[in-house]
Amino acid sequence: MSQAFPGPHGAPVAGHVPVLRLGEVLLVTLQGDLHDSTAQQLQDDLAETIVHSGATGVIIDISGVEIVDSFLGRVLAEIAGQTDLLAARTVVVGMRPAVAITLVELGLTLPGVHTALSTEVAMELLTGQAPSSRFGGLRQERL
Amino acid sequence: MHTAAGSQARLPIRSDMDLVWVRQHVRQSAAQLGFGLVDQTKLVTAASELARNTLVYGGGGTMETEPLTEGATHGLRLTFSDEGPGIPDLEQALSDGFTSGEGLGMGLGGARRLVHEFSIDSSPGAGTTVRVTSWVGRPPRPREEA
């Protein structure tokens, strides 16, 4: 029941989502309820950051996102598409089961969007290496 | 006017900030009525789709929430109203724009699958009213197409 109420991250967030760089990979963590404009801004920011940094991968962690509607779904799909065109790959990480069930029923299966259950696995997918200990701090197990 | 289990509310839908409040209000109401996590998520997602239509196609409007009681079962009814241009072809709007490439891409077909009851009233020039209702613990509506 506690998940049902706006938590510390439940308040509306406007503005920029931080984009962290870890070697060749950009890491974005989405939390709580996003404004449409914030999601749109992220899409623009990521394109710029990929070009400037030469990153080859993007990980978007949505484990803190309670709902993905068609707007946010489309933004994720477009980020994956534009990342491809910029010679990088996007992996969406940590989708909640309730979100996955709802997206399928909504008719949005996000073809072209790679997913992984954890940031570690995503990192492995993108870098082709088993995660080394220096990435140990990235683990975000949510139980 | 007066219903059991909570109170009615009317929220404005004028900006994407309001979409955030609509989602939070629906989630909170659904949780209070006893909806499970998956059903909350479905209802909030449907509300988000419909509120965005009200904003984008209807030029803004309102959402009314109404808790319902039928026997021992609780439900939540959401009514989205705008005074926008209306929808000329309802059938086309309800066909599934996301999966079939037809329809108007408004996500009405998708939102309809996420709730138990769905009705829409619209005509050109007269605005649009969409009303959806979901009930706690009731199985999902039967699939209309495979």
Protein model, in words:
The complex is a heterodimer of chains A (143) and B (146). In chain A, helix 1 packs parallel to helix 2. Chain A contains 4 helices and 5 strands; from the N terminus they run ββαβαβαβα. Chain A has 143 residues and is α/β, with parallel strands linked by helices. A 5-stranded mixed sheet of chain A has the order 1-2-3-4-5, sandwiched between helices. Chain A has a single domain (2-131), classed as STAS domain (Transcription Regulator spoIIAA), CATH 3.30.750. Helices cover 37% and strands 19% of the residues of chain A. The two termini of chain A are 15 Å apart. With 146 residues, chain B is an alpha+beta fold. Chain B has a single domain (9-135), classed as Heat Shock Protein 90 (2-Layer Sandwich). Helices cover 36% and strands 27% of the residues of chain B. Chain B contains 5 helices and 5 strands; from the N terminus they run E-H-H-E-E-H-H-H-E-E. Chain B has helices at 16-33, 37-56, 90-94, 97-100, 108-113; strands at residues 9-13, 61-70, 73-82, 117-122, 128-135. A 5-stranded antiparallel sheet of chain B has the order 1-2-3-5-4, covered by helices on one side. The radius of gyration of chain B is 15 Å and the shape is globular. The model of chain B is unreliable at 1-5 and 98-103 (pLDDT under 50). Chains A and B meet through helix 3 of A and helix 1, helix 2 and helix 5 of B.
